[in-house]
Amino acid sequence: MKLLTLLLSLCICSTSFSQRTKDLKTFKHYSVVTNKDTINYHTYAKKDIESTNVLLLYIQGSKAMSLYQTMKENGKTYVGTTLPLDFNLLPDNYLFVVISKKGFPFLTKMDEEFPVPKSYYENQTLAYRTHQANQVINSITKKYPNQLKKVIALGHSEGSDVVAKLGTINNGITHFGYLSGGGNTQFIDFITFTRNKLAKGLISEKEAQREISSILEDFKKIMANPNATDKYWAGKNNSYKRWSSFSEPPIDNLLKISKPLFVAIGTKDQAVAPESAYLIPIEFIRKQKNNLTFKSYPGLDHGFGKELENGKYEKHWNTVFKDFLNWVKKI
């Protein structure tokens, strides 16, 4: 029960006795150090970095935790991770890169509490996460100037907003992946989900109006205190500073991207309203931009999984990831 509770607390997690341990040991660890900051990033290559020619930077969502967590119990080692990717799917010529959240080490112990660092809240913004990604890409491409033929930025959830913003400042990226992200401000999702509950008959019109009024009042409080790191909303680790920063509509940034862009949404996403995601192809059509590939995945949720009638849960992340890799290969 102890192990189950710990695993359920992870955002997107998988465990194993061998494969995840192998993946964990394959990572190499680096830092970009400036006068005011240190950005820790980690690389994974099936052979060695010199044998790769495609850089894939994965930008994770909003979970405040380390990339990997381990625990030993009854003589077995369990490995949890917030990275949903199956590294077996990565082509041999890919250099996979991921950045640690500010203040978090690469690895923590699953059964020991790691308090969220103050530095995490202070840098829990769209601007800072975009800065991190830009610095890491520039550092790697500068180190291997003639080696990388493709530079890919792939974001999921909050990370998709980062990818959109990154596309406005980094001209070296050749391909963009935008998974489980909307086109409108994140604020609209909460109103949309309330109206959807009303449409399904789950709440009354009066209840919907009361709920929406309360949400709007919360938004006013957030925007009146946009830099507050000691006030939280919709999650114990989501500060006002985070919400005000990520209230920027991604569509404004996505439309500035001229390179190939892959957007995917699950039609049963419960964190991002699919209606918001459909704004993206609509605006690209309206602006007559033809660099977008948009795919919706019927019945899949925010993490591209599906809850079955028998209570079981199917993971389909690999399906989406394969589609993305095939798209990159063709473009």
TrEMBL record:
Q: Where is the signal peptide?
A: 1-18
What positions does the domain Dienelactone hydrolase occupy? Answer: 245-330
Q: Keyword set for this entry? A: Hydrolase, Signal
Q: Provide the GO MF annotations for this entry.
A: carboxylic ester hydrolase activity
Q: Any keyword Protein biosynthesis?
A: no
Q: According to the lineage, what is the superkingdom?
A: Bacteria
Record bears the keyword Signal: yes
What InterPro entries does the entry give?
AB_hydrolase_Est10, AB_hydrolase_fold, Dienelactn_hydro
**Pfam families listed in its UniProt record:** DLH
Name the record gives this protein: Dienelactone hydrolase family protein
Species this protein is from? Tenacibaculum gallaicum
